[in-house]
């Protein structure tokens, strides 16, 4: 390859309709080159000329500013050590509607009866509009968004393959617009454009409380079709008063509760011009409103649906200044799985087993004769009789008094239950697209026959993130653990990073803070995190407080009721840690600059809380505050280490509400302040760098004064405290060996078991390895009695459990079986076992370390990462004492190589081979 390749705009491969005015461009250097010395970009008449620079990642476009709808083609040429390259193949981006004034469309809403508006779940609405085009179409773009989730149809065909658009954002401040190239869908003459809109996150059930109407009480659609015709004329067809609305086959749609489709009420041809619908279109492109219930048209007499059952719409002028493109890829149907079994635990029910726990839905063929009603209940586990159980997902009202409150009444509603009534049309099938489920098993009730495995498909649905990392080694159980962590992330990446895809589906800040670095190795999450961080900032309170979940799913009122107000350390710190980790992985400085006000507001909030409040126990023990307490954050509600082994109890919140979390909160205040000091340095904010360096030093000193006891142990004397102390640099350098020794003692005391919860688990093995206890790290990794990761694997987990006791010895499930946080352990496999280490001072793996640390009897490992510069690979094999390794470094990057013997070498771009003697335990 003699030209730069892998062109990207911002972090997107196909940037259609972006609202970034001066996007950043990236490319990878031609194979065989080592170092870029200059580049030249040309883009639609603009020419950067030769620019002396080694930058090839996120280079800002400096040409004429974007105009709405304008498509820019660009190419890049580079000068490297190998000389001048050819011009790259062209890349492109196309601007969306940049100004509110570009919208001729107006929001439209159904005029909904009050009794429908007040209940949950509600039906999906069909909006449609017919129009005439005089001549051939040269170019057509559809821009659309909704309050709710929408899918557009034109002339009987589904538009695009994005699901659950416009995605989940802080709708009050940010509403994403999707752009679609619909040139091929329009014809001269009559055309119909339509959309199916359901409640989605906007007003459907959200959070563990299943609250509704969090962002508004009506669904709405905004869509604009901009058509350029052959004669150059431009027509804009937008939602407005002349559209019509109706309901059809989707009689209920809720992301939590499920979807109900009555195929007898389907409206084939609803989005087709009169008489034009031909039927038989196939999955994903059907023209019934039943979201996949197409196949063939009833009797070939589609009427275009325009003659009955359609009503006028209400036009609303909702805020257009919120409209923006997404920095992240859309949600798609990413993969399909064939069931591994269909069983019949009782005569009236069949259970489909997908073989793994996913987020998504089921596509089912064979729906039985007309009028047959099937009920599909989705769960993560089976009960002792082999039937689907949801016992681990639905709260036990007996055990949790708070849930008696009428505000939480929806908790009694079914969870993840779809139903479908057959119309008996041949070729008909069921596929809901206005709900998702976290499940491995589906119970089907009401089926008159036997469901064959090839009649059911598990559809995996999540953000279509680019895979960037892989790991395999000689130990199959470790590979299974890696797989489970990967699938847990996939199950929790449905437009926002969630805790679980079942019970809460919420963007818990702590969970993403914990897992984001691991995710960034496995997938390109740059845009995904950037999108979420904008919501975090949008919902941050004026005093800097960060909500528990982003976007908001819980309501302050509900949280106060249960006694868990937001502002928790380790969770709110996502405001600092996630931008930092995004910068590290992708060399994206803009994310730091953009989030700077948010991250500093959070740290100032925490610093103020430390200064102004004291924990009642400390007041009682020491009426006059000690000097260091100014920097001790011991007030407020915190989740603490959260879910250490055997600490969960149903009323844990009331215990946490009165507990002293000073050791955790002050540790995070120190860590976030020290990150801010570094970030300030990167952004050239020298005064801020000094301020946060001082704050970091003062909080560290306060932590030491308060939590290092006279005998040199820490308070509380738990594994998590030592792990955090070592990971965050909280203890004096000279006492690190002693702290690590105590951590080892605690692990040994627990029978070589881990004792960490959410926050410290990702650091446990790295801290041990760094402190000279690699052997213990591997012993803990390979531990297979509970609590341990391999217990999960041995008990059949295909995703990571929320609690260390996720499935009991006798197979009883407990809490969610799909929470990625504890899966962050696989970062140890990437960085230590495999040995690819990202260095703080060289973001984007421009210069990185290769330092595999074999152990645990693993005899070979292979780890790869697609960095912004290109492909990194480390593959090693241990043959007795002979250690052999192959490494690849992409052009434009360099690496330090540390062999297990300790010798340090340098690796240049290309593939290199190493060999040395390795003694076990080294
Ligand atoms: C969620 C978590 C979350 C936690 C707060 C749980 O209910 O599922 O993952 O971080 O609450 O501690």
From TrEMBL:
Domain named Alpha-L-rhamnosidase C-terminal: residues: 835-904
Enzyme Commission number(s) of this protein: 3.2.1.40
Species assigned in the record: Phytoactinopolyspora alkaliphila
Name this protein carries in UniProt: alpha-L-rhamnosidase
Biased composition regions of type Gly residues, renumbered to the chain: 292-309
One Pfam family from the record: Bac_rhamnosid_C
Stored InterPro entries: 6-hairpin_glycosidase_sf, 6hp_glycosidase-like_sf, Alpha_rhamnosid, Bac_rhamnosid6H, Bac_rhamnosid_C, Bac_rhamnosid_N, Galactose-bd-like_sf, Ig-like_fold
Domain Alpha-L-rhamnosidase concanavalin-like: 346-462
SUPFAM superfamilies membership: Galactose-binding domain-like, Six-hairpin glycosidases
Superkingdom, taxonomy of origin: Bacteria
Keyword Hydrolase: yes
Lineage: Bacteria, Bacillati, Actinomycetota, Actinomycetes, Jiangellales
Region annotated Disordered, chain positions: 274-311
